[in-house]
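Quick illustration, no need to memorize.
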Amino acid sequence: MFKMAKPFFIRVMTPLHAGSGQDLGIVDLPIQRERHTGFPKIEGSGIKGSIREVFGNLKKDFKVGTQTINNKNLKQAIYLAFGPEEGNLHAGALGFTDARILLFPVKSMKGIFAYITCPKILERFKEEMIIAKNTNTIKNIFDKNLPSKLTISNLGELAISGNIVLEEYTFKVKEENTTKEFAIWLSNLLDIDEIKNKLVVLPDDDFKDFVNLSTEVITRTKIDPKTGTVQKGALFTEEYLPSETIMYSLVLTTPFFNEKKEVFNSIDKKEEELVMEFFENGIPEVIQIGGNATIGKGIVEIKKWRE
C-alpha cells in the first residue's frame, strides 16, 4: 500500500505522441485518451518507463537521506525503487498514476493562444490534491468555489469587447476573482508567467470538443531510397498533444519490498520518504516521453511540487 503521494507537472515543449496503437478512424495513430471522457492522458506505465530510462542514464550525484547516489550504487537504487526489469522477485517502491490534462493551449484571435480548462478538470484536480494531502498549500484557493465556466483570468489579455475567439469559435466571458487567483497560484507553482493572464475556463462540452478536434495531426511518409519518391502504402497520420499542454501525475511511494536496501539506509527518515527524495532529487528538469524521440518529439519539462 502506498504511504506517500505528491503531484508533479508535465509541460509539453515539443509535440508529444503517447500512442494507443493503430485505429480505424480518421487518424491512423491516435494518442491515448480516457475511455469515459475522451480527454487526452498518458498511461502510468509509459510515465514510469520513461522516467526509469532517464534514471538509468543519470550522470550526476545526488543525496538521498544520508547517502549519496552515484554511478557505483545507482543501479541498486533503481532496482529497489522501480523494481527488477525481469522476473517478479519483488515490486518497486515507486509508482505513478496516469498523467491527466490540466491546461490545453488553443489558438486565440488576440494574445496568440489561451490556456483552456473546464470545471470537470478542476474538480478532479482538487480531488487528486486531496488524495496527495497537499491541501494546506492551496487552502486559500480550494476553500473557495472553483473557477466558474466562461470566466477568464485577465479580460484585457485575450478578450475583444467581452468576447474571446478561440480557433473559429466565439465565447462571451467575464473576469472572475476566483479564476484570477487560481491562475496566479498555478503560474507561480509552475513558474509559467503566461498562465496568469491567459487562463480561460470553458464549459465541459466545449473543452471536450477542443481536446478532440484541436490536437496536432501530422501526415508522415516513407521515401523509397531507390526512386526518391513516396513508398507505396507508406502514408499515415499521427496525432500529437501540442506544445504548451500542461498535465499532472501523482508519484506514489511505499516502503521497500526487498530486505537488502543498504543504499537507502537512513536513521531519521522512513523508507517511503527516502524513495520520494530519490525521485525528487534525481529527476532531471527535461526528459523525453512517448514516441518519435529521434525526430525531437515528446520533449517535456518536469515541474516538481513546491510547498
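The chain has a mean pLDDT of 89.
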